[in-house]
Amino acid sequence: MSNNFENFEDAFNKLKYIIENFERNDNLTLDELVKKYENGIEAYNFCVNKLEEAEKKIKIIDTKFNA
Amino acid sequence: MKLNPIKVSQLNKYIKKHLSNNSLLNNLYVEGEILNHKVSKNNITYFTLQENDSCINCICFFKEDTIKNGDKIIVSGNLNVYEQRGTYQINVKEITKIGIGNMLKDLELLKENLKNKGMFSKNKLIPKFPKKIGLVTSKNGAAIKDVLKTFDEVSANIEIFIYNAVVQGDIAKKNIIEGIKYFNEVEKTDIIMICRGGGSFEDLSVFNDTDIAQNIYNSIIPIVTGIGHESDKTLSDFTADLSCHTPTAAASVVIESYKNIQIEIDKMLLILKNKMNNEIDYIYNNLRGYNYAINNMMPLATINNFKYEVLNYANILKKFTNSNLNYNKYNLELYREKIRSYNYRKNLEKGYALVLDKDGNIINNINDVCENKLIDIIFNKLKIKAEIKKFEEVSDVK
């Protein structure tokens, strides 16, 4: 698993970009196509993993709350 | 002397009776500004009439939705005591609208002023996948529950920071401003939410504060408001990057992209795979097409045709040569027989002789001879060496 993505949003946007690229039917060479496909799958896996380990952290800031 | 206590109900009854008999109070004509205007489901209209620091509750037993908070009106009606609660209110018979009230007028002026300063045209992009969310609200209020409940609907890796702030009354302004600053300077979040559950016009008046509006405007981080108001927006809403009518709606917008994210990325995976397969199929088909074209272009057939033709010619040639050869062979045989029949030796056997010079050339001409020339005379089984003594030409030897 590659660590080319900063966070979920980054991976998601890259995946979306690749899809848009594919759908626009840019003239991609086969090598580019395969590379993009691999990157897309990587981004997808990254997103899925991130979602699986998702948990919400809640912190209450109360320090200044007087007066 | 000690008086016997009377009961609360007796007091309220007395007050009601006393006030009801006052002709002035039965025929009221009162001017003020509307606050907390509300129409119930059974079409009863409630509002508060305010003037300076004084206010009185009003009730209309009809639906009145043409008026709004801040309107300056004159009501006519009578005073009505609500015994059960020990309160009194104006039972409104008629309303006359006389303009915008001072409070609303002030607010309108403020709004206009801020708008002219460009403070209402802020619309920072709301991050689609906020990781850190700053929430300015009361930790004991209804808003926080609604927001967290909405967040719980999605599977997302988010951190929620709640800045506990009073959202009503005097401390509210200070708290809310501190909250905005906290999330801009201390715990930098991706987005700030300012939320408060529903309340009356008065309850929400803190959100019309210009200092809060200014701080919202100054925020580097995008701000979404979810202030529970039913009708008019507050100045905070106008200056925020995005305003929603309720905390739930605000929370919903903030985590919108996380909703159905799994479905969306699965959809993208499908597109990715389909596209890849289609492209590869397409390339394969092209390759097959090219292969066919190349095979067709290759002169194999022509070469084969040539080969066949050449072979054919070769066969013909062979046939022809063979027959020619046989023919020649036959002729040769024929000639050999002929030659054999002409063989001089046969003539020698018959008794003829052959005269040759010393070089073996046949002598059959006068030019071939001279006197004293040595000659060979060949017989069948005899060879004579002779010398010409004399010769003469004869015309015909018989």
> How many DSSP helices of chain B?
10
Q: Spans of chain B of 5+ residues with little confidence (pLDDT < 50)? A: none
Sheet having the most strands of chain A: none
Total number of domains of chain B: 4
Low-confidence stretches of chain A: none
The strand count of chain B comes to 13
> Which geometry of chain A do the CA atoms define?
elongated
Helix percent band of chain A: 55-70%
Strand content of chain A: 5-15%
- Calculate the terminal CA-CA distance of chain A, rounded to whole Å: 52 Å
Q: Name the chain pair whose interface involves the most residues.
A: A-B, 35 and 37 residues
Helix count of chain A, per DSSP?
Answer: 2
Taken as a percent bin, the fraction of beta residues of chain B is 15-25%
In the CATH hierarchy, the third-tier topology of the largest domain in chain B is known as Rossmann fold
Mean of the pLDDT scores of chain A?
78
Q: Please identify, by name, the CATH architecture of the largest domain in chain B.
A: 3-Layer(aba) Sandwich
Query: Judging from the principal axes of the Cα atoms, what is the shape of chain B?
Result: rod-shaped
Percentage of helical residues of chain B? Answer: 40-55%
Strand pairing plus helix content of chain A: what structural class?
mainly alpha
Regarding quaternary structure, what we see is: heterodimer
